[in-house]
């Protein structure tokens, strides 16, 4: 066993305990939960797009509980203002100056619920926070806590009262996932079991949040061979074929793909990234970034990612 594996094993034990706890709350969604944990380990932000009622909020809250993170939920509505997200400066008579009152974005895990129901102006309040992990108010910069992880939920665009997220904001989400309907066996367990929110109240923290930055550093140090980097670049080139997509993967997206693959390898106890790790995370990383050039193309993000993988041979 090499030094990397020895360092990672205790940390992985905590993560596997977190995975087991999350699977007790969100039934039959092991892959989606693993992707959510990988997104956090890769220092990214997560977008969950699905219809109401499939467990998006439960997943976000459960993640905060098992990871021991401070948690704030922001309900995005059409009348939400940027100050409602990041905070506001209020004049204090006693001191004779303006005092900054922090908004709900100052938490380690922030749930931006139904983010596409807010106007573009309110949505933009998250951009600096997501990219630079800070907010600027009245010319003064305020750092956000570490770790900092945004989990945003989005309703399908065909639903009433939604505003499309701009490409600049969509690209800041490392991953996008869907939860979907439960399998019949798991739906029966939901019908017979306790309310999921009651389970959340009893969910203990199994990860020390102070260790998470160290875990993220270990993920960044996972080895990626030259052959693996060749594979990443081949996927990027294939995505930039003008006949297939409106625009290919940006350099930031390609870096995000590699970071996510490293996190997947780390979670599964591997010291280096394999092609299977890249393939496992690719739909979640590129599905929301690639749009078919043909407007009549109605393939899902997963189908687009699968076609992209099929077009690139494994080195």
Give a written overview of the molecule:
With about 325 residues, the chain is α/β, with parallel strands linked by helices. It has a domain of about 220 residues: P-loop containing nucleotide triphosphate hydrolases (Rossmann fold), CATH 3.40.50. The protein is built from 14 helices and nine strands. The strands form three sheets. The chain has a five-stranded parallel beta sheet with strand order 2-5-8-1-9. It has a two-stranded antiparallel ribbon with strand order 3-4. A hairpin with a 4-residue loop joins strand 3 and strand 4. The longest helix is centred in the N-terminal third of the chain and has 23 residues. The radius of gyration is 20 Å and the shape is globular. The chain starts with a helix and ends in a 5-residue tail after the last helix.
CATH superfamily of one domain: P-loop containing nucleotide triphosphate hydrolases
The tally of beta strands, per DSSP, is 9
Whole-angstrom Rg: 20 Å
Helix-strand string: HHEHEHEEEHHEEEHEHHHHHHH
CATH topology of one domain: Rossmann fold
Distinct helical segment count: 14
**Which shape, going by the Cα principal axes?**
globular
CATH architecture field of one domain: 3-Layer(aba) Sandwich
Residue fraction in strands: 5-15%
- Give the low-confidence spans: 1-8
């Amino acid at each position: 066993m090499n030094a990397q594996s020895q360092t990672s094993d205790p940390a992985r034990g905590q993560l596997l305990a977190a995975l087991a706890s999350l699977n007790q709350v969100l039934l039959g969604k092991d892959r989606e939960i693993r992707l959510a944990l990988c997104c956090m380990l890769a220092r990214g932000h997560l977008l969950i797009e699905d219809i109401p009622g499939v467990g998006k909020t439960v997943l976000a809250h459960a993640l905060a509980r098992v990871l021991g993170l401070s948690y704030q939920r922001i309900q995005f509505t059409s009348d939400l203002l940027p100050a409602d997200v990041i905070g506001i400066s209020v004049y204090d008579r006693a001191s004779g100056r303006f005092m900054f009152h922090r908004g709900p974005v100052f938490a380690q895990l922030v749930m931006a619920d139904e983010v596409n129901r807010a106007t573009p102006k309110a949505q933009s309040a998250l951009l600096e926070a997501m990219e630079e992990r800070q907010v600027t108010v009245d010319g003064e910069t305020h750092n956000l806590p570490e770790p900092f992880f945004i989990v945003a939920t989005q309703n399908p665009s065909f639903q009433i009262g939604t505003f499309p997220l701009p490409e600049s904001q969509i690209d800041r989400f490392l991953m996008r996932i869907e939860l979907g309907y439960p399998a019949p066996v798991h739906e029966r367990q939901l019908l017979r079991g306790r309310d999921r929110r009651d389970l959340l109240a009893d969910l203990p923290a199994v990860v020390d949040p102070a260790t998470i930055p160290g875990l993220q550093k270990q993920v960044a140090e996972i080895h990626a061979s030259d052959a693996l980097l060749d594979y990443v670049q081949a996927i990027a080139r294939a995505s930039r074929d003008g006949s297939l997509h409106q625009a290919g993967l940006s350099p930031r997206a390609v870096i995000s793909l590699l970071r996510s693959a490293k996190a997947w390898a780390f979670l599964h106890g591997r010291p280096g990234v394999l092609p299977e790790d890249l393939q496992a995370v690719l739909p979640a990383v590129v599905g929301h970034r690639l749009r078919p050039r043909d407007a009549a193309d109605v393939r899902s993000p997963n189908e687009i990612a699968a076609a992209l993988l099929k077009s690139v041979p494994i080195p």
